[in-house]
């Protein structure tokens, strides 16, 4: 057991070093563009959710509410979410080119109870390098198609006629 301690320390240290240069970019139609490190996110209020993997095992993910990140970027919410603001969206982009779309309305607690988080831990441990450093988790969807791996950026846009 004592031999495992240095190995565990090296693994965690290596993971932290590899992730130290990573920044989640939040931009587009925001009043405050952001570049957030995993450390920045870990200082925000934590939220948990669960998701079943392809083998049927349920995992618990820890991270930050997507709505909290949007609020920090100055994205309209609550009473501001009316009229043309209802035509705004969040486009989540991943390092492999995968993209998913959410309307602001479905993410806003004043309209919907949807739990979407930006996760940095799975079952109490940092996400594996192949899945992280961040993963977007959309709880309660019948298919996990919008629960992405290796989240790189969030772009807020507006559908125009």
Automatic annotation (TrEMBL):
Coiled-coil ranges per UniProt: none
InterPro entries linked to this entry: OxRdtase_Mopterin-bd_dom, OxRdtase_Mopterin-bd_sf
Annotated Oxidoreductase molybdopterin-binding domain residues: 57-140
Gene3D superfamilies: Oxidoreductase, molybdopterin-binding domain
Name recorded for this polypeptide: Molybdopterin-dependent oxidoreductase
């Amino acid at each position: 057991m004592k031999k495992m301690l240095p190995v565990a320390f090296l693994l965690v240290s290596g993971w932290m070093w590899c992730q130290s240069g990573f920044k989640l970019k939040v931009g587009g139609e925001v009043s405050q563009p952001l570049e957030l490190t995993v450390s920045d996110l870990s200082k925000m209020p934590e939220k948990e959710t669960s998701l079943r993997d392809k083998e049927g095992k349920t995992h618990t993910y820890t991270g930050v509410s997507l709505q909290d990140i949007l609020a920090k970027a100055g994205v309209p919410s609550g009473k501001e979410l009316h009229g043309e603001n209802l035509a705004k969206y969040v486009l989540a982009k991943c390092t492999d080119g995968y993209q998913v779309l959410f309307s602001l309305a479905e993410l806003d607690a004043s309209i919907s109870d949807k739990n979407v988080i930006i996760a940095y831990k799975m079952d109490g441990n940092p996400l594996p390098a192949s899945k992280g450093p961040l993963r977007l988790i959309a709880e309660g969807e019948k298919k996990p198609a919008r629960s992405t791996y290796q989240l790189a950026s969030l772009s807020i846009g507006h559908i125009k006629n």
